[in-house]
Amino acid sequence: MSGPPRHIQLTPNFNLSEFLHGQDPLPAPWILDNLYRLANRLQVLRDLLGKPIIINSGYRSPEHNRAIGGAAHSYHLSGMAADIVVPGMTAIQVQQFLKNWSGGLGSYQHFTHVDIRPNRARWS
Ligand SMILES: [Zn+2]
Fold first, then answer.
1. Ligand 1 centroid, distance to 12 Cα (angstroms)
2. What CATH number corresponds to the domain at position 111?
3. How many domains does the chain have?
4. Using CA atoms, how far apart are residues 22 and 86, in angstroms rounded to an integer?
5. Residue 117 and residue 104 in contact, taking contact as beta carbons nearer than 8 Å
6. Residue 124 falls within a domain, yes or no?
7. Does a structural domain hold residue 4?
8. Ligand 1 centre and the CA of 80: distance in Å?
9. Going by DSSP bridges, is the β-strand pair 112-115/104-107 parallel, antiparallel, or unpaired?
10. Which positions ≥6 away from 70 have C-beta within 8 Å?
């Protein structure tokens, strides 16, 4: 056993595998800790919404982040960020719902970036 399994249920509605890109090796324990904190924040949101949250992109390895042209210091690299969509809601509706989110909130046309940085940040 070389590490935790890929399919750990982090919260009632979020499984570790949802945050991992298929080809990536399992991230380091400190990144798994961040993903657990992120999943718990998303679970609160999911409970408030009463709708599933689809994670388009969660943890990114440095290689994967480079391959997709992600920002060099992206919070995705530390397992602190997710790009999400909510079926039945537009990205703008999701962003409006998240307007009091305490970390980072990136508003894009077809998805919403959320991260658990300690300060509030907004961009679009
Ligand atoms: Zn993102």
1. 23
2. 3.30.1380.10
3. 1
4. 21
5. yes
6. no
7. no
8. 9
9. antiparallel
10. 60, 64, 76, 77
What's the CA gap between 33 and 27, in Å, rounded?
A: 10
Report which residue type is found at 87.
P
pTM for the predicted model, two decimal places: 0.92
Domain presence at residue 8: no
Helix (H, G, I), strand (E, B) or coil at 21: coil
pLDDT tens, 57-101? 999 999 889 999 988 889 999 999 999 999 999 999 999 999 999
Any idea which residue has 């689809």 for tokens? 54
Q: How far is the CA of 115 from the centre of ligand 1 (A)?
A: 8
Find the 1 Cα to ligand 1 centroid distance in Å. 31
Its domain, for residue 24, covers 16-119
Residue 6 lies in a domain: no
Distance 49 CA to ligand 1 centre (A): 20
Which position has the token pair 């890109």?
21
Q: How far is the CA of 8 from the centre of ligand 1 (A)?
A: 22
Question: In angstroms, what is the span from residue 64 Cα to ligand 1's centroid?
Answer: 13
Question: 84 C-alpha vs ligand 1 centroid, how far in Å?
Answer: 8
